[in-house]
Write a structure and sequence with these properties.
Layout (H helix, E strand, L loop, with lengths): L6 E2 L4 H7 L7 E10 L8 H12 L4 E5 L2 E7 L2 E5 L5 E8 L2 H21 L3 E3 L18 H10 L6 H7 L2 E6 L4 H21 L5 E2 L2 E2 L5 H7 L6 E2 L11 H9 L5 E4 L2 E4 L5 H4 L4 E2 H9 L2 E2 L1 E3 L3 E7 L5 H13 L4 H6 L6 H14 L4 E2 L2 E2 H14 L6 H5 L2 H6 L11 H7 L5
Parallel strand pairs: 11-15
Antiparallel strand pairs: 1-14, 2-6, 2-7, 2-8, 3-4, 4-5, 5-6, 8-17, 9-10, 12-13, 16-17, 18-19
């Protein structure tokens, strides 16, 4: 049966269906970048559109809905724009990190000359360094305008997230409900430390930022029903049904009918869903949650900042090595004591102290070294060099956030994406 017409009487059956598909373990990735002017300010959407037009002339296929640009497709990749014109490359799930790197390098070979021709630069950094979110226009996509209206009522920093932030996201497979729970809970528990390892925000609003994990702070103040940790996600009885229950009881904000995007206001998913539910409809509802670890037909790990190549591929390698480690459940045992209260406390301590954090008997320096070692253990010999580029930073307990002695211009220069 084609996936497009597959239906379910119970939405939770979707997860079981995905888990039981006969497939090898794959790893996927999405990398958001900022395109900046030479003075490190935000680039207007029409200027980014001109870059996209040049890519169409370079054999990328354009796709639109309602006459609105959606993205560009080329072999294993898909380029799209986030609400504030963040430049995102999505790479389909592949067997190894080496395969992903090959795709990503092809992307850079196409994109960098065009961006440079337009007098711009591509940067791997987690937040706009100079331009304020208030001064950044949303791209012309109804979904984003409805989300903007919604987030203005649910928190204080949703517009920061939409307009000015940039992340790296990895996708891993699950093969049973138990595997789903193990991976989601383990990734959630180590998530704050992963965020620390790849923290890349040194400057905000043209001022040095004194706190760590700025994107974590943004998500803490965006929308409690759809960000951070799914409700009950760290409880022993968590599973497909509880994740489904949360999705059914939150507000999905938008819905697409007959290629028309509409606002759903304060209606909940359970008020909008039609039975039997199709794969496309259920995956839309799932996509409107933005948890640190989001469930679809795979698990999406979302707490890592945008960082420059080759370190973004190191992040992919780290996630693959840990999540597909042959002893992953035993590794998880080292962190099972972290419940929701402890998880929030760890995030707060890391935001304040960074690598100097020690909480619940765990030193941030020791935890990140441990995660790095586990990542290496879980990779093939061919993949390990992609993670080993992080060795020096891990040993020195450094990330991509620089001390105040490093100027804004130098911080951005260090995080510029190059081949």
């Amino acid at each position: 049966m084609n996936e497009e017409i597959k239906t379910f009487q119970r939405p939770s059956e979707y997860f079981q269906w995905k888990a039981q598909q006969n497939k090898p373990p794959l790893i996927g990735a999405e990398f958001e970048h900022l395109i900046l002017n030479q003075d490190n300010s935000w680039v207007k959407s029409e200027e980014v559109a001109a870059i996209m037009d040049d890519l169409v002339n370079d054999d990328w296929q354009m796709e639109t809905v309602e006459g609105v640009f959606l993205g560009l497709r080329h072999e294993c990749m898909w380029i799209s724009l986030e609400p504030g014109s963040q430049f995102e490359i999505s790479i389909r799930p592949l067997p190894t990190v080496n395969h992903l790197e090959k795709c990503y390098r092809t992307f850079l070979e196409h994109v960098l000359p065009i961006i440079h021709k337009h007098g711009k630069k591509l940067v791997g950094v987690g937040f706009q360094p100079i331009t304020r979110p208030d001064d950044i226009e949303l791209i012309d996509k109804k979904r984003y305008h409805y989300m903007n209206q919604h987030f203005s009522k649910t928190g204080t920093m949703g517009y920061y997230m939409m307009r000015a932030s940039a992340a790296s996201q990895m996708a891993v497979d699950y093969f049973s409900e138990q595997d789903f729970v193990e991976k989601l809970q383990f990734a959630t528990r180590i998530g704050p430390y992963l965020a620390l390892m790849f923290d890349s925000v040194s400057y905000v609003h043209n001022q040095y930022l004194t706190e760590n994990l700025f994107r974590t702070t943004i998500w803490n103040n965006t929308d409690d029903q759809r960000s951070n940790t799914v409700r009950g996600g760290l409880e022993p009885d968590f599973g497909f049904e509880k994740y489904t229950k949360h999705i059914l009881n939150f507000e999905p904000v938008v819905l697409t009918n007959d290629q028309k995007t509409i606002s759903t206001g304060h209606k909940k998913t359970k008020d909008l869903i039609r039975y039997p539910v199709t794969v496309d409809l259920w995956e839309h509802f799932l996509s409107m949650a933005f948890f640190d670890v989001r469930a679809k037909g795979y698990l999406e790990i979302r707490m890592i900042d945008s960082v420059p190549y080759p370190y973004n591929l190191a992040a992919v390698a780290l996630i693959k090595g840990i999540m597909y480690h042959p002893d992953m459940n035993k590794l998880h045992d080292r962190f099972r004591d972290i419940d929701q209260t402890a998880h929030e406390a760890i995030k707060r301590d890391l935001i304040e102290h960074g690598y100097q954090s020690t909480i619940y008997g765990r030193s941030a320096k020791d935890v990140t070294k441990l995660l790095y070692q586990w990542g290496l253990e879980g990779l093939t010999p061919e993949e390990r060099p992609l993670l080993e580029v992080m060795k020096g930073k891990v040993e020195r307990s450094e990330n991509f956030r620089y001390p105040p002695t490093v100027s804004l211009e130098e911080a951005i220069r260090r995080n510029e994406v190059r081949l």
